[in-house]
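Hey, can you fold this one?
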Amino acid sequence: MSATAPRAARAATGGLPGETGAADTAVAPRADCVADRAGGITFTVTGPGGTGPARLLLRLRGGERETGLPLTPDGAGRLRGVLPAGAELAEGRWDVHLQRADGAARRLVAGLQDLRALVDRVPADSRAPVAVRLPYTTKYGNLTVRSWLRAPHAEAGELRVGARELGVRGRVYGTSLTPDAYVEAADRAGVAPAARTGLDADGDVFRCAVPLGSPAPGIRDLWLRPAGEAGPRVRIARLLDDVADKKHIFAYPKVTLGTAHGAVLAGPYYTADNDLSIVVVAAG
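Sure. Predicted structure:
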């Protein structure tokens, strides 16, 4: 049994912890976004309140951090602001607000999102940290920016689900692959020992075949050890595209395996953070 590509569909991202309250889309200000390959985002705000002094406010969900961006009139009755590619934005979900000089910050409704530049993006500098900023629409129609900052980073590419193993092709950024490199499947519950899988390397590109079987049902998170046991432990993830939440959009087949615990179903999936894992559940 083999799958060379996920069954993917573009859809609005569902609700996530920290996202509360439906936006009143009839009266709330709205922001269109254009993302560029370097990691910058241009916001264009329309809606009630005119074009007086205002700023864009990004608040880290679940934390106390925020980033403000100046907004300036664009001459067409709208306000425009830019999140520069070089601006520091911690990993997480940043809810986007409009704050006028004479009022409290107000959540922005998501408008059009031009993410074409992010499709199959390849960072220009393979040794630099990987920074991804991806605007998306929440369950309630609000605008949020999902940010990742990984150094080093292991980008998952093609996945192939075989009869008993998962084939993974990927590329490493921010470090180099050594002859001691391997892939580690770690039991998320910390009960079973981590399983090692060797890999083939061609420059920064690696290929491996991770066994799908497991001593017991559970979740195994996949990590790259580019320098072996003594080096960094790098989570394998898929970040360099235009899909903010792959967990419910990229679906892969599961295979049936016989184990000491009985028949199980096993297959890959992406977590809520777009990290790559293998789930093993009892069949039936």
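Residues 153-282 form a domain with the Immunoglobulin-like fold (CATH 2.60.40). Let me know if you want another pass with a different chain boundary.
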